[in-house]
Amino acid sequence: MTLDPYPPPEDLGEILFTEEKISARVAELGREISEDFAGQTPLLIGVLKGSAIFVADLARAIPGPVELDFLAVSSYGEATRSSGVVKILKDLDHDIADRPVVLVEDIIDSGLTMRFLVEHLSAQRPSALRTCSLLVRNSAEVGGVTLDYVGFRIPASFVIGYGLDVAQRYRNLPYIATYRQG
Ligand code: IMP
Ligand code: MG
User: Fold this and answer.
1) 3, 46, 81, 180: least CB-packed within 10 angstroms?
2) Which sign, positive or negative, has the C-alpha torsion 77, 80, 84, 86?
3) Is any ligand 1 atom within 6 A of the Cβ of residue 178?
4) What is the CATH number of the domain that holds 100?
């Protein structure tokens, strides 16, 4: 049996980060987080669904105790551009008051989602709130928000793989590539 190539060649642009490159960077981020939170149990909050794969690897790159929770926010839908509105579709299960928290995103594009979530979580008075994103687009405007842990900075093109999708596809690619549109 022969399988069709996945992604089809007309969708796949350039591979920006290989599986090896991602895993080496995730290991470094895990080390940084464990040093910064030594003696504590940080709560990693993944933003569904894009950061699910990243947060699963990041948690395993932290040798000490961690807890996990997830938030879901409104996505771009089928579009590859932000609608400009962020809505919480699933809130946290844990109470984060007095807890050290690391908010984990897949990518910061406009910065809107991150700015909204930092405000939403700070209002619940965690003992610490750090931000982590696997990718940050060069054009992102994060306003007053500090990005504490950044995997890679990327230029404008839309990307797929390692959690990132186009209309729910390609999250399972082990690498990150640009998506060839139209
Ligand atoms: P922001 O609010 O504009 O920063 O958008 C952040 C969210 O948009 C991310 O968490 C992703 O879910 C989605 N997103 C932005 N750029 C891309 C991309 O290149 N590929 C896949 N998803 C993206
Ligand atoms: Mg996302």
Assistant:
1) 3
2) positive
3) no
4) 3.40.50.2020
